[in-house]
Amino acid sequence: MKTRQQRKQEIKRFFDRLSPEELDKLLERNGINDKESNEALSYRTIKEEIEKGEI
Predict the structure, then answer these.
(1) Are the C-beta atoms of residues 15 and 23 closer than 8 Å to each other?
(2) How far apart, in whole angstroms, are the C-alpha atoms of residue 41 and residue 35?
(3) Local confidence band at 27 (pLDDT 50, 70, 90 cut-offs)
(4) What angle do CA 45, 47, 36 make, to 5 degrees?
(5) Which helix (H) or strand (E) holds 32?
(6) Are 21 and 30 contacting, i.e. CB atoms less than 8 angstroms apart?
(7) Are 55 and 49 contacting, i.e. CB atoms less than 8 angstroms apart?
(8) Residue 54 — pLDDT band, cuts 50, 70, 90?
(9) Measured distance CA(1)–CA(53) in Å, rounded
């Protein structure tokens, strides 16, 4: 049985071998998207402006 440290190292090596494009595709396939939608960006911008008192 592998130790926690060995499993952690195997996972790290797996991700280290992936190119940025492969990693993006893998994350996208698994429903993990690091890009902010236009709606989320607009909401965040408006919220920040309200908090600053600019609106």
Answers:
(1) yes
(2) 10
(3) confident
(4) 45
(5) none
(6) no
(7) yes
(8) confident
(9) 58
Residue 47 vs residues 35, 39, 55: alpha-carbon distances, Å: 19, 12, 9
Question: Whole-angstrom Cα distance, residue 13 to residue 21?
Answer: 17
CA angle 5, 13, 23 (to 5 degrees): 125
**Distance from C-alpha of 46 to C-alpha of 43, rounded to nearest angstrom:** 5
**Integer Cα distance of 37 and 42 in angstroms:** 9
Q: What average pLDDT does range 20-46 have in this prediction?
A: 80
pTM higher than 0.70 for the full model? no
Phi/psi at 42 (nearest 5 deg)?
-60, -45
